[in-house]
Amino acid sequence: MNPHPDFAGRDVPATLGLGPYHLTMLTGADVDEDFAAVMDSAAVLRGVFGTDWPDGLTRDYNLTDLHWHHREFTARRSFAWIIRDAAGVYLGCAYFYPDIATTGRGEAVFWFTDTPDRLAHIDAFGPLYRHWWGQLLPQGYDLRLSHNGAPGR
Questions:
Q1: Rounded to two decimals, what is the model's pTM?
Q2: pLDDT tens digits for 19-49?
Q3: Are 5 and 103 in contact (CB under 8 A)?
Q4: For residues 135 and 114, what is the distance between their CA atoms, to the nearest angstrom?
């Protein structure tokens, strides 16, 4: 599997510190923790990836999805991390998807679990994540950012 052209000569770290947040590459080994976080936060995740995700998600399908994310990451085609705090608590996930069949455009997506401080985390993490991608990507890259902080979620 070839890397996306935007990342053919570019390394993206499997682990990353962004302010108080610690990102680690999402893999199949994370399935139980990830599945619990997604299902416990379903009400604030609908619409992040399609209109009805994560409705109907099973642990087995989630495991398949995590393996896909890991393979895509190692092939430099898309990227997915777990977001944790300094104590190692699972807070959410962050992704980057370069646009398919083109170069110079992509979407950075992130979500935080359904906790009382979710919106504060979104407000704090978003600028850090955007800035980090801005430093890594070439000047002029069309970077879109989305998250689960929209009203009604």
A1: 0.94
A2: 999 999 999 999 999 999 999 999 999 989 8
A3: yes
A4: 30
